[in-house]
Each structure stands twice: as C-alpha cells, then as structure tokens.
Design the sequence.
C-alpha cells in the first residue's frame, strides 16, 4: 500500500489511475504510480471511477460532482491549458488535488495563428507588415503571439483586464482592438465574474469591426456568439471568420463552417510537443501533490521531427521566406480541407468531429524546423529567429 496515496485505503493496495485514451505518454510518466485504465474522455462516467485514485482528462470530460461524488478520486489532472470543463470549486470543497497544464501547447496555437495570417496576406496580396492584429487575452498564448507578430513587423494592439503593461506590453481597450484588420481571441471561457468572456464577441461587437476584418477564434467556441457570427457573415460578404473552436462542440453548425474562410476541428494546440508537454506538466504536478520525486523528463520521449530542415538563398525576399517557413512547419489549409471534406460527407457530426481529433496527424512545433540561411543574409536570419525558427547559418 503506497503511503503517499491514502493511508486509510487498507484492502486494495493498488493505486488506480483512469486516463483519457487520447493523452500521450501516460504509461511512460504514470506507470510507476499504479495501474492505468484508458477510457474515451467524452463518455467517461462515475461508475468508471468507482476505484480510481487519480483521474487524468482532456477538455472533453466534464469533471464535476456528478462525475466524482462517491468515487475515491484524490487528484485530477487535465493535460490542457483550458479548465472550463473542470468544476474547481467542487474539487476544492472536497479537498481533491487539481492541476492543469498552463502554456503546454501555447507554441502550437501561435503556429496555427501564423499559418492563418499567412493565408490572409496571400489572399489580399499584402505583406505581414501591412497587417494590424488585435489580441484579446495576453496570457501564455496571447503574449507569445504578440512577441512573434511584433518581431515580424505587424502592428499589434492588445487588451486584457487582468494584466499590467509592465508584464505584457502596451494594453488598450477592447473597442480599440476591434478596429484592427485581424482580431485573434485568446481568453479562457468565463461565464461569470467581472470580465466574463462568454459571447464576448456578439452582434454589436461584430458590427464594430470593419466590413472586411478577420475574426480568428482558437480559444473556446462560446467566446463568440456563433449564431450572431453566422448572421453577420451572411450580410457582410467580405468579413473573414477563421474558427478552430465551436459553440456546442462536437455538434458542429455546418452552415457556419461553410461561411468560414478557414475551419478546423479544435486542433490549434495539437502539436505532439504540446500534447506531450501537457502530460509532463500534470505528471510533475502529481509528483508534487503526492510528495514524490520527479524522475522523468519529456526530452527522453520526444521523437525526431519528420521534416528537419528547409534552406533559403540570400536572394529570397523576407516575406516569401517567412510564409514558406511558417507553412512548412504547419499548413492550416490542409486541416481546413480535411475538416470540410469529412464534415460534408458525415452521417454523424459528433462522431466525425471527435474522430478527426483522435486521428490527428503528427505535427511538430515550429522550433523543431531548422532553417538554413546564408550567413550574409542578416535581416532574414533575424526575422526567422524572431518568428521562432531554429536558424542555422550556412
Ligand atoms: N484551440 C486550442 O486547441 C486551444 C485553446 N486554448 C484556449 O486558449 C485559452 C487561452 O490560453 P492561454 O493563453 O494559455 O491562457 P492563459 O490563462 O495563459 O491566458 C488567458 C488570458 O486571458 C485573459 N482574460 C481573461 N478574461 C479576459 C477578458 N474578458 N478580456 C480579455 N482578456 C481576458 C487573462 O487575464 C489571461 O491573461 C485557454 O483558456 C484555452 O481555453 C488553449 C490551448 C489550445
Ligand atoms: O489545451 C487546451 O485548452 C485545448 O484546447 C486543447 O488543445 C484541447 O485538446 P483536447 O483536450 O480537447 O484534446
């Protein structure tokens, strides 16, 4: 009987861990804790947890009293940044330990936004530096995005009622942010409090944006009023919507998907690096909670990237090199194409949405892509480095 877990648990000496089937490396990181049972997160129920000591979930499992009451669960970990699926007040009230994985896939979301912006600039025949981008929520994702965009020469405006300028750079009002060419949302989903984000972008705020502005949502579906967005897109044909997250996932609004310029199935954060980092962070938190030493590190499990290097000549224009490197690392249009083709043929939208996420192809963070640049092309080296690539002088 491991004393670290529960000194009152006399009969069954095995520690039981129930984990979502889609969290990578659980066996590697948690194998020493005890016996692991893998289950589909969407359909997890209280009876699955009748002897579970540790519960490890992703965003698709609602963790609240109806799931946990009358179970022996002592620690819950979610291998995600978002925590809106967790009733943390209930966990606190029952003395159940909790950890999420802050920032684990922030780099992947930034890669997603950069790929989307590369499509926008191409379709408008402009360069990155011609765009103004508004960021709503300057946390792990929003701040990294801000740094990348500014280093690429874009004008950035940002708003966040909970942050100080010393921490995250200049801040402005939401109204001001909505005046940008592109508005990118990076808040948690909050239904209450002083600054709720549920339907933060509603009919009135959509109308505040320029008729040909772009709204990009890769945080949580319900931060945008999806019905209002559909109505807006029908009467503002030049307005661009790029959605990774949807109200009522996995029940997708197909009409809205067709109105979007780019549509993906909640995969902005789905790099292998981001998912594995999520597991490492909840492993570290569980070790801390139970007073165990942290013995394992992610580095020992990450595989070699499939695409290792792209090379540029000194003659390539900086803008062209940037968009090529961004898309070599992650191409949003492939995910958009798969989503449209799968959803249009689908007999069961919920199942198809979840299947695309479960079977998502291997993708790596930008930092894994080495970019060869002639040593004399200093400006190109600087911009690529600032955008997050591993630049090699040649
Ligand atoms: N599509 C995907 O695959 C992914 C989505 N996400 C979502 O993105 C969200 C943001 O991620 P992080 O930046 O890592 O979270 P974070 O918690 O580091 O940052 C969120 C920021 O939003 C700010 N905020 C809260 N309410 C706000 C409001 N009313 N207006 C403006 N700002 C507000 C907070 O002060 C905080 O700085 C997560 O909560 C998660 O729901 C995260 C990762 C992947
Ligand atoms: O980390 C988050 O927050 C996310 O949105 C995840 O990337 C979502 O992944 P799942 O937990 O839904 O697989």
Sequence:
């Amino acid at each position: 009987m491991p004393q670290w877990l529960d000194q009152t648990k006399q009969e069954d000496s095995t520690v039981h861990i129930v984990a979502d089937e889609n969290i990578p490396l659980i066996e590697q990181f948690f194998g020493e804790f005890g016996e692991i049972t893998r289950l589909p997160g969407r359909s997890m129920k209280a009876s699955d947890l009748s002897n579970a000591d540790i519960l490890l979930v992703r965003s698709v499992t609602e963790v609240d009293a109806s799931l946990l009451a009358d179970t022996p669960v002592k620690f819950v970990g979610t291998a995600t940044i978002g925590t809106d699926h967790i009733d943390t007040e209930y966990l606190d009230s029952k003395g159940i330990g909790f950890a999420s994985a802050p920032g684990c896939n922030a780099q992947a979301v930034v890669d997603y936004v950069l790929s989307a912006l590369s499509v926008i600039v191409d379709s408008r025949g402009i360069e990155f530096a011609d765009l103004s981008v508004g960021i709503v929520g300057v946390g792990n994702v929003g701040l990294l995005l801000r740094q990348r965009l500014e280093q690429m020469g874009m004008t950035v405006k940002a708003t966040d009622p909970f942050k100080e300028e010393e921490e995250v750079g200049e801040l402005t009002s939401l109204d001001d942010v909505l005046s940008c060419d592109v508005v990118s949302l990076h808040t948690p989903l909050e239904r209450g409090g002083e600054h709720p984000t549920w339907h933060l972008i509603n009919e009135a705020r959509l109308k505040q944006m320029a008729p040909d502005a772009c709204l990009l949502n890769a945080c949580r579906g319900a931060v945008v009023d999806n019905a209002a967005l559909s109505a807006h897109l029908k009467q503002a044909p030049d307005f661009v919507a790029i959605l990774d997250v949807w109200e009522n996932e996995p029940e997708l609004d197909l009409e809205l998907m067709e109105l979007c310029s780019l549509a993906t199935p909640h995969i902005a954060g789905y790099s292998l690096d981001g998912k594995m980092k999520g597991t490492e962070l909840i492993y570290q938190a569980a070790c801390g909670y139970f007073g165990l030493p942290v013995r394992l590190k992610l580095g020992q499990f990450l595989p070699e990237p499939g695409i290792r290097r792209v090379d540029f000549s000194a003659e390539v224009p900086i803008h062209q090199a940037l968009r090529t490197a961004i898309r070599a690392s992650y191409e949003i249009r492939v995910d958009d194409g798969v989503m449209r083709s799968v959803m249009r043929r689908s007999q069961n939208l919920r199942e198809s949405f979840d299947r695309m996420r479960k079977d998502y192809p291997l993708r790596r963070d930008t930092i894994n892509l080495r970019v060869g640049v002639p040593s004399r092309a200093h400006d190109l080296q600087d911009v690529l480095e600032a955008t997050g690539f591993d630049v090699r002088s040649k």
User: Anything to note?
Assistant: Residues 22, 58-60, 80-82, 105, 266, 269 surround LXYGBJRG (ligand 2) (CB under 6 Å). The chain has a mean pLDDT of 95. Residues 106-124 form the longest helix (19 residues).
